[in-house]
Design a protein that fits this description.
homodimer; alpha/beta; Rossmann fold; Domain 2, N(10)-formyltetrahydrofolate synthetase; Formyltetrahydrofolate synthetase, domain 3; 3 domains; twelve-stranded mixed sheet; three-stranded antiparallel sheet; 18 helices; ATP binding (chains A, B); ligase (chains A, B); P-loop_NTPase (chains A, B); one-carbon metabolism (chains A, B); ATP-binding (chains A, B)
Chain lengths: ~550, ~550
């Protein structure tokens, strides 16, 4: 079996300008970054093209293959002669050197060249890092230059695209009088920066500037918010992002056009690619396949209630990816025997799939297909059981073999999706903008997560007051909780129900334009592992890379 | 008068592939980064083309226009029908937001688009930042994972391309047991990173890997050096630099081909563009104009004794840039009246020019022309005085008006240079590789700087022993001292002589392959000013930038 990177090295890629031609892009619309990647001019008109959202059941330690399925589905639509474009997130560089590795699909459903995508790509993450850290430098410089803004409590953190736990909690400004003002600080990974969320939610350069101006970075000594506009550097920050805001054109190894743009965390942020890229894809193709982070209760909910609400979008069909392995895991199968057939565990764990189907089909009112990402060790009895379960719930299930077969392995899914797309589409938002923040969180937690009750801890209660006093109750909520369960407890597998849902804290993101509800511990700066992937990577004298997963 | 950025916006640039054609580059040699910048394949054969080094008298607060003169000279050679290529350094992003602004020449002798060059360009600095910080993350991870290498004293610092004084002295790893090991650390600006020096001194990807492997990052508890190769991440670091090592093709506003590649500090490092770019330029053109940082006693010395010695290069002619203003400053003219004619000050200060001429012509044995960068307020008497002074010293002086007139303003200089290039060329190195470090420093300080005596302080003496015991006496020395004087005292203007030169400390750079002699305070992380340039920058809704200097 070839490794992922070997498969991409064997693929014959097309020049990216040829991929652009398939989308009708003119020469002037394309800024090449080498032969296989390009920045393109955003196209932001209203469009009647079909938007297909790929989401999944709750993640497990084994991986469900959501991106592989997204790529495979787009390649399948391409095979069927449809004018299709993928709209995906950019992977973060830091985790590539840790355990996680890159994120460009897998097997025969991949984006390529994968080393480009997983390393610096077109520099968007670096631009975001610079923009974030210019704000930090301006804050610390203002403190140092006699603090004219009377900065007191600083909310803004530095960032870096690296797995580096030693930077989580630091003290800066320690050298002496000439070396800044001593204070506690920390670095988040770039994907967790509010700038990343802003880039993904901005609808134009002017909107980007307004959002950046509105970032709340600190409170002054009277408790009044200080914004980036008060630091006087909103334009400079925007200047650093002038290219990063343009979507990146890329391709699958089957030459399906792909816009890869933006990569916000799916906990502290909304976890989807940029609005600009999604809209551009809809302008350039008839079918757009996109995805949202983590399971549907987190990713699809934010996709709809944050991204779609802000952008005036709706998914015309939704693909819910699952695996028999992850359903068995949800049915408490032994991890060491997860590949062994186990109908007992499957029957118990399939409730997880059921919960996601119910939410997507009945609560959000979406056209839905289940994609079973098939592995070699899955047996027919198990597959048939899932198919019948889906049928009983009123949805079709397609068997997907994209990892092994590329687009061909996704033709059944593509056909089911095309059928769903013939139905009228419609989306129910879970809350209204006019609901206050407490109501919004409560609606998501009870209606989507399945909580009986929502408990707001003291810190969260005091923040609710702050939010109201600042007039920010109209913002959507971005809930940061564990991705492993419907609930806020990673161990409650299956279809958790009847639990109490705790909100510990709320964070105000006036730039991105949402309120983060912190429900559990959220990790914003990963660490490297005992034997980091960095140690297994090789590059030869011709620049050929191996060991990049 | 138009601002620099306005001048570049009025220029009609050529598509960068057309600039590449002028150099005989084939389509496969060029990786476009948009329309106006490209990465090109290195060309590293021996070449008989002519290498012209542009250096200067000691810097003053007013600026001498060295890069403007380099660009103007190349444009003039281009006007005269010569096949010419510039080989310059990349500017650092951080200072753009502080006081200094960008670095792309000025007036009508500029590189363009200047916002591209001064912002992210082709991402080289970001790649170097990532590479540097991956090493830091690996060190801190090793500490955290039970410290198998028994790391004790860490030499390696993090870096960021930002003017951020608060990061000079920090403490990392403060969160608790899961958040790394607490220790003192700091960030240098990216241009001061050893990785930057390595990138500029590497002669191939294989050589880059070897140099990175050899970086000494720490001592273990037994005082034994720990290298990047011991961390096991040399390949991963190299992978991050696989594109950064390729030269960047750019153009002047008069369409002269320019390779802009690498930007190491001229104190802690050698302050020249990359060997790979200089050699590639020599392969692609008949005349190559390059420059070295600060005044000739620092920049030209390192260019010769470090870069040329390592690369097997020699300058066929040298241009020594000066201004009447800077010579008057060296003659203790009042700063507030520096633009007023002042023969007394000029006569006193011209000794500075004399010292540089003597060094370049007599000590290094180089073919030399003086370029007087003329300002509107310079009067004929002053200009004639400098010309006659040069004549007495046996060198021609050309009046340069590149800022106001572009290449046309450099034709006299170009013609003088072409004459020098007809002479045989030859270079005297100041020291031999076999001299020990103490001897090397002493030779440079006495023969080039003009010191009577060299004092090695205690710390330096103990490091001399360490260097000998590690067998590193064969390395060249990279002296870090003030750029404002021949001496180590910024206030000794003119032709300082007969001073005692103090060496405080020595730093071992086994990756870059030199020993840094620290002679005075060296600033490796600048700060922002009271009103940073960032506050004056603007970008409109179409992405047009103003206020970027």
């Amino acid at each position: 079996m070839l490794s992922d990177i070997e498969i991409t090295h064997q693929a014959k890629l097309e020049h990216i300008s040829k991929i652009g031609e398939k989308l009708g892009l003119k020469e002037d619309d394309i800024e090449l970054y080498g032969k296989y990647k390009a920045k393109i001019t955003p196209h932001l008109k209203e469009s009647n093209s079909k938007l297909i959202l790929v989401t999944a059941t709750n993640p497990t330690p084994f991986g469900e293959g959501k991106t592989t399925t997204s790529i495979g589905l787009a390649d399948a639509l391409n095979l069927l002669g449809k004018k299709v474009c993928l709209a995906l997130r950019e992977p973060s560089l830091g985790p590539v050197f840790g355990i996680k590795g890159g994120a460009a699909g897998g097997g025969y459903s991949q984006l390529a060249p994968m080393e480009d995508l997983n390393l610096h790509f077109t520099g968007d993450f670096h631009a975001i890092t610079s923009a974030n850290n210019l704000i930090s430098a301006m804050i610390d410089n203002s403190l140092h230059q006699e603090n004219p803004l009377k900065i007191d409590k600083i909310l803004w953190k530095r960032c870096m695209d690296m797995n580096d736990r030693a930077l989580r909690f630091i003290t800066v400004g320690q050298g002496g009088k000439a070396d800044g003002v001593e204070r506690e600080d920390g670095f988040n990974i770039t994907a967790a920066s509010e700038i990343m969320a802003i880039l993904c939610l901005a609808t134009s350069l002017a909107d980007l500037k307004e959002k950046i101006s509105n970032i709340m970075v600190a409170y002054d000594i009277d408790g009044k918010p200080i914004y980036v506009r008060d630091l006087g550097c909103a334009d400079a920050v925007c200047i650093l992002l002038k290219d990063a805001i343009k979507p990146n054109l890329f391709q699958t190894i089957e030459h399906t056009p792909t816009l890869v743009h933006g990569g916000p965390f799916a906990n502290i942020a909304h976890g989807c690619n940029s609005i600009i890229a999604t809209k551009t894809a809809l302008n350039l193709a008839e079918y757009v396949v996109t995805e949202a982070g983590f399971g549907s209760e987190l990713g699809a909910e934010k996709f709809i209630d944050i991204k779609c609400a802000k952008a005036g979008l709706k998914p015309d069909a939704v693909v819910l990816v699952t695996t028999i392995r992850s359903l068995k895991y949800n049915g408490n199968a032994d991890k060491s025997e997860i590949s062994v057939p186990n109908m007992r565990a499957l029957k118990e764990g399939i409730a997880n799939l059921g919960g996601h189907i119910e939410n997507l089909k009945d609560k959000f009112g979406l056209n839905l297909v289940v994609a079973l990402n098939k592995f070699g060790f899955d047996v027919d009895d198990e597959i048939n059981f899932v198919r019948e379960y889906c049928a009983k719930m009123g949805v079709k299930m397609a068997v997907c073999e994209n990892f092994a077969k590329g687009g061909e392995g996704g033709v059944e899914l593509a056909n089911f999706v095309l059928k769903e797309l013939k139905k009228p589409s419609h989306v129910n938002f879970i809350y209204k903008a006019s609901d206050d923040i407490k109501t919004k969180i409560t609606k998501v937690a009870t209606q989507i997560y399945g909580a009986d009750d929502v408990i707001f801890e003291d810190m969260a209660l005091s923040k609710l007051d702050k939010i109201s006093s600042l007039g920010l109750d109209n913002l959507p909520v971005c809930i940061a909780k564990t991705q492993y369960s419907f609930s806020d407890d990673a161990k409650l597998l299956g279809r958790a129900k009847g639990f109490k849902f705790s909100v510990k804290d709320l964070e105000i993101r006036t730039g991105a334009g949402f309120i983060v509800a912190v429900c559990g511990k959220i990790m914003l700066m990963p660490g490297l592992s005992k034997k980091p992937s960095a140690m297994d990577m090789r590059i030869d004298e011709n620049g050929v890379i191996s060991g990049l997963a």
